[in-house]
Prior knowledge:
Keywords: Repeat. The chain is an alpha+beta fold. It folds into six domains: 55-241, no CATH class; 244-311, CATH 2.40.50.320; 320-387, CATH 2.40.50.320; 394-460, CATH 2.40.50.320; 463-532, CATH 2.40.50.320; 538-610, CATH 2.40.50. The protein is 16% helix and 38% strand. The chain is built from ten helices and 31 strands. It has a seven-stranded mixed sheet with strand order 9-8-7-12-13-10-11, with no helix packed on it. A seven-stranded mixed sheet has the order 16-15-14-19-20-17-18, with no helix packed on it. A five-stranded mixed beta barrel has the order 1-2-3-6-5. The longest helix is centred in the middle third of the chain and has 14 residues, at 223-236. The model is unreliable at 1-46 and 315-319 (pLDDT under 50).
Amino acid sequence: MKKAISFLLMFSLILSIALVPGYAYTGKASTPPGLEKKGGLPPGILKFIDLKEVEWASNAIEKMAEKGILKGVTEDKFAPNKPVTKVEALAMILRALGHDQEAQLELKAIKEGRKKSKIKDTAQEWALGYIEISKNWNILADDEELTWKNLNKPAQRQEVAKYLVRAMGLEGEAEARQEEPLPFKDAAAVKKAFRGYVYVAYDRGIMRGDNKNNFQPNKSVTRAEMAVLVEKLDEYKDTSSAVKTLEGILVEIRNNNKILVLNLQNSIKYYTIDDNVKVYIDNQLSALRYLEEEEKIKIYVKNDKVIEIRWNSDTVVEGDVFEGIITAIDNINKKISVTKGNTARLFTMNSDTQIKINGSSAVFSDLAIGMDVKVTIKNDKVLLVEGIGSVVKYMSKITDINRDRKEISFKTGSTVRVYTVDEKTIIRIDGSIRDFERLEVGMEADIKAVGTTLQEILARNIRETLKGTLIAINRSTKEITIKSGNTERTLKVNTDAVIRLDGRSAALNDLMPEMEVDVAANNDKADRIDAYTVETQYGGELIEKYMGNPYKLVLKSNSKTYAYNVDRGVIILEDDDDDDDSKNFKDLKLGSQIEITVSKGVVIKIRILED
């Protein structure tokens, strides 16, 4: 799934309600009301006449309707108290997290027959892509959940808690908190399968009880409640929290490598482990299974997920012989890290060290990560390294794929190794069996090889959101370079990438260096680019304005209409008068010809032009 969302999001979601509602589907259209593609709604600011009884949600409803994430059941009615179905709730959450394009691609693959769907003949077509993502990300985990009869039922509060927690990648934490007591009077009414999810949703400030401290786990979620939740998800989905560095004692890693338990100054803390976590032992890339409990480690946490773990073992070799698996190689200093169980040892080769593999003389470059070795030491010097067997196991990133030859290249340190895929090779991507054609450059993978042939490859998609300044564009190779802080990244731009400039559809040729960008990337390839110019001017007729929070206006230009958020401190000038800033936004008259200055998608200056 799964994109990194800041827990700032969660603590700011003060829903005294529960979570989520969606959009009611009443017809046979391919897209249900409330799930129009962004930009597909009629331009202008939507206003509904039935929001009086849900004033607490009216701003969220209007805002999300304007963005096209949801809309009314008719042109001027929203039906705020109508329950949403489970599939509608799932789709709303995934859209708010920015995965609508991915859902459309999944739907296209199903319609074209490139992907099979067990419920294609019973489900409404618009829902198939969202269901496929929910299945792939384990948001929906069993066959009973994946029936259209079940998905088309109203969503309960406890069910929405599970959908949201899983979509945010916090399933491991929910499992770890399964036995924690819930602080509600009706806690016993929460089904056991949902208790961990309800606990996390409450603990993170996402869901609360009612004014009598009841959670009402079986109560349906309304459209108004969903609008409030979706507004928060939309606001903060791309917010990058600072990376926090923590140092403590490793207590344990539990729940199939999903939860890290750390002792921080005698306080036990639980952390969700990112699927793409990097583990370094003695500054060499390693794996979770080689960490030792009760050892001091340093972890790096972003969006409340552990993205990196470092442990300096500082071990000294004892005894004459040590057997284990090579977990890291330093080609420059001729060092190897060898691990057995929870013990790792670092060995330095010298000019007298003999190396043998399967009984034959070899050289240092013939050693490989994942190889079983026996190391003989005497007087603190490595006398002999014997490679045992030919099976190699290690983790690395795919750097190249030759699809004609069925070859995959991996880079470990400065060493590039090329392996061949044959009909017996087992290929899994994010846990599911996949074809060779589905592998991509940039994926991380655990591999198992015999000689130069891969026996097994367990690959993972690396999804990330980048924010920074565009410093270079190679239009011929379709590559962009982004600078964020002191870090520069070059990404390939996918041919079907969504590109928007100041909120408008654009192309790669429209982008220029120095623009600020938000980029959604998958395996070092940009799937979506939202770019913002420092300042841009647009002219046209003011056809609508809105004095809500934030201010909004709708501009008509060349028969097209565009909606913009307006800074509350916007400067308003008369034509040819740069000194008059006394006018207020509310004084603007509909039908006026105006010129607006937009910075990062927000109007900061309005000039009223002479008729």
